[in-house]
């Protein structure tokens, strides 16, 4: 789903999340493991200030496992607890409850000591930009298919709590935040991974960007998939070469870039080049 974010929508989304934050103890921030920085909201620290946060690297089944390992270290070194997930199959989600309890332990112990509240479940909210897998995760945690109707800014309904295990309750509507789209590279990363579907970005530009990245980080896989002897220096020359190999030619022998881009993008999304990550932590 693509949401067009305007300043009014952003302000409204933020207001709605601020309201939801009053109800919960811990935030589950969901990002795409292949682009853990590009798939974050630029104001997440400010918006969730004061609430313990658990970062969930979702779609890890599609990400490069080595890169994911590096990201886990990166975030843990910054003091942010992390879990690696595949919300589609549920892999990794059984660790969420224990992690959430750990994060609120101090607060709950204090409340207990002061006799403020009776023991109760930890309350959590899933937050993230569109398409990172919030609804899929909520359904997985709920153990059934529930209609996640709040998945649009401005759509409101009565909040329900979903019981997860014995000591966790999850709000059934996620908080939806906007990506940092003023940065063009972030837009390109979101488009390559499919987070922006009907992209306003030029299709061929997205592929050209991806090829430039893959050439540096996954050259062997490119050679293997497209039967290349070596990789041309310039991403455009690489694009040409793959287009030629795939028979994407127009009359006069010119490369049909749109057709070539479509093939490459389809290959990338179908994991024909294996599990790829499009970001690595700065060394
Ligand atoms: P959102 O609420 O954050 O907007 O995201 P949503 O759950 O709708 O998920 C967006 C897409 O990502 C869906 O695919 C969903 O199946 C897929 N997805 C979510 N989590 C994972 C994961 O861990 N691994 C993989 N591989 N995919 C995941 P879709 O193409 O829109 O729908 P469908 O093909 O599943 O029907």
Automatic annotation (TrEMBL):
An MF annotation (GO) of this entry: RNA binding
Cellular component GO terms, alphabetical: cytoplasm
Residue sites binding GTP per the record: 58-61, 131-136, 175
Q: Ubl conjugation: is it a keyword of this entry?
A: no
Using the record's annotation, list all stretches that form the CP-type G domain: 14-179
Keywords in alphabetical order:
Cytoplasm, GTP-binding, Hydrolase, Nucleotide-binding, Ribosome biogenesis, RNA-binding
Report the PROSITE patterns cross-referenced here: G_CP (PS51721)
Q: Which residues form the signal peptide?
A: none
Q: Name one GO biological process term.
A: translation
Where in or outside the cell it occurs: the entry states: Cytoplasm
Gene3D superfamilies attached here?
A: 1.10.1580.10, P-loop containing nucleotide triphosphate hydrolases
Q: Among its keywords, does the record have Iron?
A: no
Q: Which Pfam families match?
A: MMR_HSR1
InterPro entries from the UniProt entry = G_CP_dom (IPR030378), GTP-bd (IPR006073), GTP-bd_ortho_bundle_sf (IPR023179), GTP-bd_ribosome_bgen (IPR019991), GTPase_MTG1 (IPR016478), P-loop_NTPase (IPR027417)
Chief subcellular location equals cytoplasm
* Biological role stated in the UniProt entry: Required for a late step of 50S ribosomal subunit assembly. Has GTPase activity.
Q: Which family does it belong to?
A: Belongs to the TRAFAC class YlqF/YawG GTPase family. MTG1 subfamily.
Q: What is this protein called?
A: Ribosome biogenesis GTPase A
Its source organism is Fictibacillus macauensis ZFHKF-1
UniProt lists the gene as rbgA
